[in-house]
Amino acid sequence: MGKIIGDSLPANVVRLLNAGKTVVAATVDADGWPNTAPMTWVVAKDEKTIRLAINKEIATYSNIAGNGRLTLSLKGQGMSLGVRGTAKIVKDQMKSVPFPCAMIEMKVEQVKDDNIIGKVGEEGIERWEDRRRLVSDVSVANELRE
């Protein structure tokens, strides 16, 4: 379920992206199917702007060129965030890359904390780490294999 926490990146996420954090980019193709791809060349210009270097020969590039819809998933260091926004091509060919690679700029529109499952009555917010303490991962995996 997650919880929307704002329309800009928290300062720690800006720092994490600028330190070389790998993210998963999710786009939607012309037929409405989701497409995901890991991205390693990602920087946050500021709390509202993310830039990515994307190979022009992959579906992620075509999908962004087609509809501009982009969600990035960041996981690690105790967080799981979804960052949604509108992306556009700002440079068709990057000089620093020797193969067809475009610079994409994403305007951050929504940041969602995916560690939060939802509200639990008057007790407050339920988080995944709380639920995981109650359930054995091995038991769940075994049942999924049945």
Summarize the structure in words:
By secondary structure, the protein is α+β, with helices and mostly antiparallel strands. The protein folds into 2 domains: about 5-115, Electron Transport, Fmn-binding Protein, Chain A (Pnp Oxidase, Chain A), CATH 2.30.110; about 115-145, no CATH class. The chain is built from 4 helices and 10 strands. The protein has helices at about 10-20, 60-65, 130-135, 135-145, and strands at about 5, 25-30, 35-40, 40-45, 50-55, 70-75, 80-90, 100-115, 115-120, 125. The strands form 2 sheets. Strands 1, 2, 3, 4, 5, 6, 7 and 8 form an 8-stranded antiparallel β-sheet that branches. It has a two-stranded antiparallel ribbon with strand order 9-10. β4 (about 40-45) and β5 form a beta hairpin. The longest helix has 9 residues, at about 60-65. About 20% of the residues are buried. The mean pLDDT is about 90.
How does the SSE layout of this entry go?
Layout: E1 3-6, H1 11-18, E2 23-28, E3 34-39, E4 42-46, E5 49-55, H2 59-67, E6 69-76, E7 79-91, E8 101-113, E9 116-120, E10 124-127, H3 128-134, H4 137-145
Antiparallel strand pairs: 1-8, 2-3, 2-6, 4-5, 5-8, 6-7, 7-8, 9-10
Nutshell version of this structure?
With 146 residues, this protein is of the alpha+beta class.
SSE topology string: EHEEEEHEEEEEHH
Helix-strand makeup class: alpha+beta
How many structural domains does the protein architecture include?
2
How many distinct beta strands?
Answer: 10
Query: For the report, how would you describe the main beta sheet?
Result: 8 strands, antiparallel
Question: What global shape is seen?
Answer: globular
CATH architecture designation of the largest domain: Roll
Distance N terminus to C terminus?
Answer: 27 Å
Q: What fraction of the residues are assigned to beta strands by DSSP?
A: over 45%
Determine and state the CATH class of the largest domain.
Mainly Beta
Quick one: CATH superfamily of the largest domain? Electron Transport, Fmn-binding Protein, Chain A
Overall pLDDT score: 88
